[in-house]
Hints:
By secondary structure, the chain is of the alpha/beta class. Helices cover 24% and strands 21% of the residues. Strands 5-6-7 form a three-stranded parallel β-sheet, covered by helices on one side. Strands 1-4 form a two-stranded parallel ribbon. It has a two-stranded antiparallel sheet with strand order 2-3. The mean pLDDT is 93. The chain contains five helices and seven strands; from the N terminus they run E-E-E-E-H-H-E-H-E-H-E-H.
Amino acid sequence: MVKIATQDFHPVDHISFASNHPGPNNRAFESFITMQNPAPGKEGETKQQQLWPVHCVADTAGASIVLEIEADKIDLHVKKGMDKRVEMYSAFTDAFGNNDCATTKGVNVDLAAALAERKVSDVFVVGVAGDYCVKYTAIDAAERGFKTWVIEEGTKCVVPELGWAKAKAEMETHDVKVIAAAGPELARVRAQG
């Protein structure tokens, strides 16, 4: 069993922070900006990006793993969202699907390669936000061939009811299973130690 923690680890001038854009269309949770793909040769590719409050700024308490998690028992720490030019909800890729750590520098670990190296077959995902980072990480894991599970009780959303309902429906179309903590899938993992 491999325990992996992911952390948003944003620079203070990250593109998703509403305060980094001029008003009046810079309201967190409401406003959108046009973001360009930072990968070489793909600069003309754009996406709409929702703006967020400042959060998880690198090397601040807001980017730290909560004390209730036993950090000394984590095998791999994945810091993501480090490229100021692009949003990164998934621990595998940025919003454009770039996963080259050296090119965009948005993440410190190639998670797919790290899982393959450790011969991982099943990925269980928990955390925040269920309708963003959890959803995209789970979908990317499934698309890379891992049997993927999201533990419902271990997930919280930005938009609790509607956001979670939409996220579950989208994950289902990618063969991601949403399970209960007391279900047989986790019992099998617990039995492995």
